[in-house]
Amino acid sequence: MDSVPGRGRATLRDVARAAGVATSTVSRVLSEPGRISPATTAAVQRAVQELGYEARQRTPAGPDAKPRAVALLVPDITNPFYFDIIHGTQEQLKAAGYTQLLVDTEESADVEESALESVIPSARGVILAASRLSTGALAGAAGRVPLVALNRNDAGVPAVLIDPGYGIHQAFQHLVSLDHSRIAFISGPAQSWSSQWRWQVFEEAARENGVDAARLGPYSPKQTSGAAAADALLTSKASACIAFNDLLAIGMLRRLRTRGIKVPQDVSIIGCDDIFGADFCNPPLTTITAPVEQAARVATSMLLNRLGGGPLAARQVSQLPTHLTVRESTGPAPLRR
């Protein structure tokens, strides 16, 4: 009989105590054989036999057996760009009766893949924001769980894209009108799909406007990377740049001020996304404004439609336009001596 002397039937906690592990580890050993180390598995199995523990029979798991939860994976929870995504998805999910599971994947494809493995068993659907996964890994995940990607469109999965095209072309028209003839793109992470897309649009706009284009980077999309990016910009001899995101641009403003370089008198800076605080910079940042919260709501609606039994074509893609917001970090190109 599965019992503990003086206490009746053995519990999962009894097994964990006897094996010297956490109750969650016991649960994983019993429900997911092969996922825990052999030594730990053997210790748990010995405790189970000694205590005569028998797990309660459960109804086989299926989609309806999962809690009403949707996982949102973002590369960096401290990046203000993702604040509106988190808010937009959470409000939409809450209204539909779902709980949001928020995961920070630390700008790492490995962490993201591991996190997906952890949440897929307990989430009915997944929203991936700016996924760093390989194309194959993203497609594989979409085959295991209802999934919508935000700002990623190379794996044949449903996607919502913030289209940089209009905003970048406006930025070039703005800079050309100020007599800038060499413009640099401060690129984001090497594995960022949206950074590659922005560079393609950047090159196209440069050709159309007869402008000399330079690509600098890659850089981590953080303020701390702005110093290196600013130094590279000065070396490139470009008189203006468009940064992958506002955080990089803000970090560049700080570095340039430290070096005694005036913005926009000596060099012009444009960011991307128009995050909270972009207009509080010194000087206030000219940036490409993105409908971030709207994109999050559209992605959530697409996923909820599928979870509700509605149709969702494998190649369903929604694109939302950007536009340029001019502030004080851009000005006329400096006179050449």
TrEMBL record:
PROSITE patterns assigned: HTH_LACI_2 (PS50932)
Keywords from the UniProt entry: DNA-binding, Transcription, Transcription regulation
SMART domains per the UniProt record, alphabetical: HTH_LACI
Matches recorded under InterPro entries: HTH_LacI, LacI/GalR-like_sensor, Lambda_DNA-bd_dom_sf, Peripla_BP_I
SUPFAM superfamilies named in the record: lambda repressor-like DNA-binding domains, Periplasmic binding protein-like I
Residues of the HTH lacI-type domain: 10-72
Source organism (scientific name): Arthrobacter silviterrae
Matching PANTHER family: HTH-TYPE TRANSCRIPTIONAL REGULATOR GALS, LACI-RELATED TRANSCRIPTIONAL REPRESSOR
Protein name in the entry: LacI family transcriptional regulator
Pfam families in the cross-refs: LacI, Peripla_BP_3
